[in-house]
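ok trying again, last paste got cut off:
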Amino acid sequence: MLQDDYIAFISKCKTERECIEFVKRELDSCGYVPLTDKHDKNKRLFYMIKMNKALIAFKLGKQPISHGMNILCAHVDSPRLDIKQNPIFTNTGVAYLNTHYYGGIRKYQWLTLPLAIHGVVCKKNGETKSVVIGEKESDPVFCISDLLPHLAKEQVTKKVSEFVEGESLDVIIGNEPDMKDNKKYKEKILEVIKDKYQIEDKDFYSSELEIVPAGPARYMGLDKSMILGYGQDDRCCAFSALKAFVADNDTPEITQCLLLVDKEEIGSVGATGLNSHLLENAVSELVYNHYSENEYSLRKCLENSNILSCDVTSAYDSKYSDRFDMDNASFLGQGPVLSKFTGYGGKYEANDANPEYVAKIRSVLESKNIPYQVAELGKVDAGGGGTIALYAAKYGMNTIDMGISVMSMHSPWEIINAKDIEYTFQAYKEFLSLV
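nice, full thing came through this time. structure:
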């Protein structure tokens, strides 16, 4: 069942690299080949990976590439804690990892949770060592301590935003009460890390280690109607997009594209975010190498494309009803959500989709009886947030957000309705057939 496969996916894939490796294996099994390979003109299934954290795949269609593509784009990064480059320190017999939070977390939610470490350590000799600690039953887990309520009289008077400072998100990794000398205890902890994991102190300089909630995603509710898991923003949409993209390998009328990007949670920056030349570089390689066409064809391809920004939105939560406009809210289990615009306040940092494009998407969904919703993130001045849509729109292509409704978004454990995985898969699959 699709939902079971999804739970297995988000239970295992808790970093961008793990997601991209999963997608690569899926594409390899379906006959896709690297875009940079020397290929003959009969090949039509390609992919390109950027820095192991972003991926673009193409299924070539019958129409010339200048006619555009149908693109499904999701992001595979999620809010988390990143380990700093000099992370190890000790204090009164307790060893810690120093962290820097990534994305829009609510810091107090990360206290006293069982935590795991996922990522890579790149060594001077060129070796890249994968690290996953805290997911097996035999593994240790890690934790950030909290102040006991008996001594929290002053703490509880603070604003939520000030309740826990970023520099206090230190992860406990060891305890030796007789070791009062902090320097000697740090050396001992580093020896343990070296002996057990073959990681030396300076190897942290060239590491990418992420602290994430430990344990698998689970069905939630007596009726198993929901799924509780880490990183569902935005991996629930990424998974649905992947499954829609590989649902069949028939030659489509219009070229199809799967675009999975990084860094959305911090502004789509860097070489693996969509606010880079990632998309146009990949399309230019496709245009030049496969079609032997020019810069004009590249630009017309991008301009004539249709894209879904496959990103989640907030689900209505009756406990916080004053934050939502009930007539423009989305609900768990009622299908993917079309968001004509995102952003904040007066639609700042938003793409605002053309109504003609909205009508086209509506027509496809309704013709196939696929449930869907139309909603905004919340009340106009309650806050807001952006997606990758505005960065796709700069090419002149048709752009709109459509993704799954999520409750407790950006918390360590997020909630979706299990049926929405199937509904969203169906919606994405039908979108790819647009002509």
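cool. The chain has a mean pLDDT of 94. Residues 182-197 form the longest helix (16 residues).
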